[in-house]
Amino acid sequence: MYTDLLDAIGAGSTDGRGIPDPATGDVIGYAPRQSADDLDAAVAAAKTAQPSWDALGHEERSRLLVAAAAVVEERGEDLAQLLTRESGKPLNGPNARMEVAMCSDWLRATARFDIPQDTLVDDEDAHATMSYEPIGVVGAIGPWNWPLMISVWQFAAALRMGNTAVVKPSEYTPLSVLSLVHVINEVLPEGVLQVVSGGREVGARLSEHPDIGKIMFTGSIATGRAIAAASASTLKRLTLELGGNDPAIILDDCDPRAIAEDLFWGAFINTGQTCAAVKRVYAADAIYDELCASLAEIASTVPMGPGVDENNVLGPLQNPAQHRIVSELVEAARTGGAHILTGGDPTDGPGNFYPATIVTDISPDNPLVTEEQFGPALPIVRVKDVDEAVELANSLDVGLGASVWSADRERAVEVARRVRAGTVWINGHAKPDPRIPFGGIKQSGYGLEFGAEGLKAVAVPKVYNG
Fold first, then answer.
1. 191 vs 47: CA distance, rounded Å
2. CATH: 3.40.309.10, 2.115.10.20, 3.20.20.30, 3.30.465.10. Which one for 246-426?
3. Active site annotated at which positions (predicted)?
4. Where in the chain is CATH 3.40.605.10?
5. Out of 86, 241, 372, 449, which one is annotated catalytic?
6. Strand order in the sheet with 137-141
């Protein structure tokens, strides 16, 4: 039972901060009230544990990551049930059960990667190699939209490379992350993986802490800038995965009905609350109307409601503040003369529900297009040709992901070369793979996660010359 997890992390005490269910408003548990002093204690424990964790070697650390994957699977349904109640995302579809399964998959994949080692020079005059060694203690600051999966993305690679880790979950979704760490710590040595639940005071202390060698952060651009500034005095290494507002370019040779389902879920995964989801669509005039109609048909019929209902695949927005942002941006579109093809009118009642909304005939400079809505409202901009689509896609100062859709893959790749983003998917969107590096450019941050490059990012290079 997920309530057993709440008991194990001390979430039954009303001395903590109440965490509401986004679908009902009912309190599901109480987050411990932790402070900067608690953070200091966690960092000290992680620092003490790090040398012996490193000394275990890659083979043993990999074995323990696989063991961690197994215990996550064993408690998978309990974790998914808690995640649904805390985040609002439904159990089924690309949501809670999938997120928990991806945690196990990612732990196993990270355990399997070959450790990077490069031969730089090897001839009669010189021999030099470069290996990668642990940084020490890595701080991981996670978001509320995929709290379990992104936490694993952050700490799995760090642990594999011999670091210890201190995790600070979002104030909105602490219970899930506290429970995940509790489950994983059943198999890890003491002190290796720490978690501290708290507010800005805890995050600020983690960002500046002299014994933290690296910060990994996923979240807003504004918070990323604050972390970069706070970390500067100790020259911490940083991986920052920040806001997206990803474009999708739909070329004129596409069959709108054939791509509509994949495009819809590229935008509406986790009810639109995904950094690398499609946030704006630029569609060729020749297929525009049919594409809009196909997306609206899906949006108007896909089941939305409380996540514990097995029939639902879209849920509420995680918090009232995000509901307000989506509502205001859709109203800005309406006021600006756009057509709300479906959705756009939230009903009164419990929960942070906002209907799946398709917005057409919208100006490319409307706020719903230029600002990241992070919710279930998709603007579709009509373009006359590829050049206009690429220009508009590149017009914003973000560059996390993008996608190009075409019946001709080579044509799509040619267009993708012109799009400025860290990842450009072809005929798909928001499909992370533990083997494939991922990271943003421009104001979407810097640094890579996943695969061999992700391992390098949580280590320091060391050259052996001679």
1. 8
2. 3.40.309.10
3. 241
4. 2-242+444-465
5. 241
6. 193-195, 164-168, 137-141, 214-218, 237-241, 445-446
Q: How far apart are CA 298 and CA 301, in angstroms?
A: 5
- CATH architecture type of domain 2-242+444-465: 3-Layer(aba) Sandwich (3.40)
Torsional class of 263: left (φ above 0), alpha (ψ -120 to 50), beta (otherwise): alpha
> Is residue 453 among the annotated active site residues?
no
Give the model confidence (pLDDT) of 322-371 as tens digits. 999 999 999 999 999 999 999 999 988 899 999 999 999 999 999 999 99
Which of 323, 330, 393 lies closest to 360, judged by CA? 330
The predicted-structure confidence for 274-315, as pLDDT tens digits, reads as follows: 999 999 999 999 999 999 999 999 999 999 999 999 999 999
- What's the CA gap between 380 and 385, in Å, rounded? 15
Pairing of strands 278-284, 237-241: unpaired
Nearest to 32 by CA among 206, 201, 197, 202: 197
Which backbone phi and psi does 347 adopt, to 5 degrees?
-90, 155
Name the one residue in this structure whose structure tokens are 């603007």: 379
Q: Are strands 401-405 and 27-31 parallel, antiparallel or unpaired?
A: unpaired
